[in-house]
Write a structure and sequence with these properties.
321 residues; alpha+beta; Jelly Rolls; eight-stranded mixed beta sheet; four-stranded antiparallel beta sheet; 9 helices; 32% helix; globular
Length: 321
């Protein structure tokens, strides 16, 4: 198994025939591997410089003093906003807090994150380092909106590839119930990772599709059908796209939400500490009150309908302390 690289440019700018050809490529990758890398996607988010700026701002945020970051601490799965200290989250397939606690003790995740939702949510506000990093808020809100636009195009392509029509999901994903996650994997003693820890443990994502912008350090691995983990070697100027659990459920298992993890990158580096790694994930979700039930043309339903928000809160509740 390998993660395919797909040219998304013809879907954004091509003829109807070219759009349908790209949509088929996306559907084939989503229904077999569950992962793909898209190139020539930048026009959907406003240009290549948007990604470069995103990595600059991410690094600047994590360089803030710990007392500033702790003031922005993540508080609840319902809001899913704020700063998450290293060791607080343990991503996993486990669904009970007891299982997650045991895994956290045995093999913690060596990373810190900043979680950002839509900023005009009247119930769950974002938290910002207003004084210490005043330009961060405007940048993050702008990049959130850019990622939403790319996500809409990807969902349109998947719908077209499934024979549902390109606009099928439009009214079900327009409330922007997403999370922008900035990630920092700081240098740690290599022996801790080699001793069973991970930069991010084995897990699948919870929502519809994830967009992952990663640097060239590497470490992302995708599980194949035999249970082996295959490196998803970074390809410059691509975005990694993978299917989440809700979209697999929504598609009645036609599309695949694949287990993945972040480990030490392969290579000959024998230094005592790991290299720093940064990535930016955009976890796309359906509208929170959207009922997730079997899509047309996918056969007899395998799952009971579930509300998007109910499912996400349940999964997040087990993930954090």
């Amino acid at each position: 198994m390998s993660v395919p690289t797909i040219d998304f440019g013809p879907f954004l700018h091509g003829t109807q025939e070219e759009k349908e050809a790209v949509a088929k490529e996306l559907f084939d990758a989503a229904s077999t591997v569950g992962f793909m890398m898209l190139k020539n996607f930048h026009s959907a988010i406003g240009g290549k410089e948007k990604v470069e700026e995103a990595f600059d701002k991410t690094k600047q945020f994590f360089q803030l003093p710990m007392e500033v970051k702790d003031r922005l601490a993540w508080q609840s799965p319902e809001s899913n906003r704020g700063y998450v200290r290293q060791g607080r989250e343990r991503v996993t397939q486990a669904i009970t807090k007891e299982e997650v606690e045991a895994l956290r003790e045995q093999a913690p995740d060596y990373k810190e994150t900043m979680e950002i939702g839509k900023d005009y949510d009247s119930v769950w506000p974002n938290m910002w380092p207003e004084e210490e990093f005043p330009e961060f808020k405007d940048w993050a809100n702008g990049f959130f909106e850019s990622c939403h636009l790319l996500h809409v195009e990807i969902m349109s392509a998947l719908a077209l590839g499934m024979g549902l029509g390109a606009s099928f999901f439009d009214s079900m994903i327009d409330q922007k119930a997403h999370n922008l996650r900035l990630l920092n994997y700081p240098p740690v003693a290599r022996k801790l990772i080699e001793g069973g820890g991970n930069r991010a443990g084995s897990h699948s994502d919870y929502g519809s599709v994830t967009l992952l912008f990663q640097d060239l350090v590497g470490g992302l691995e995708v599980q194949d059908k035999q249970g082996n983990f295959i490196p998803a070697v970074p390809v410059a100027e691509t975005v990694v796209v993978n299917i989440g659990d809700l979209l697999q459920r929504w598609s009645n298992d036609v599309l695949k939400s694949t287990i993945h993890r972040v480990v030490l990158p392969s290579g000959d580096d024998k230094s005592e500490t790991t290299p720093q790694r940064n990535s930016i994930a955009f976890f796309s979700n359906p509208n929170l009150h959207q009922m997730i039930s079997c899509l047309p043309g996918t056969g007899e339903a395998k799952y009971e309908p579930v509300e998007c928000e109910e499912y996400l809160v349940r999964r997040l509740t087990a993930t954090y302390v």
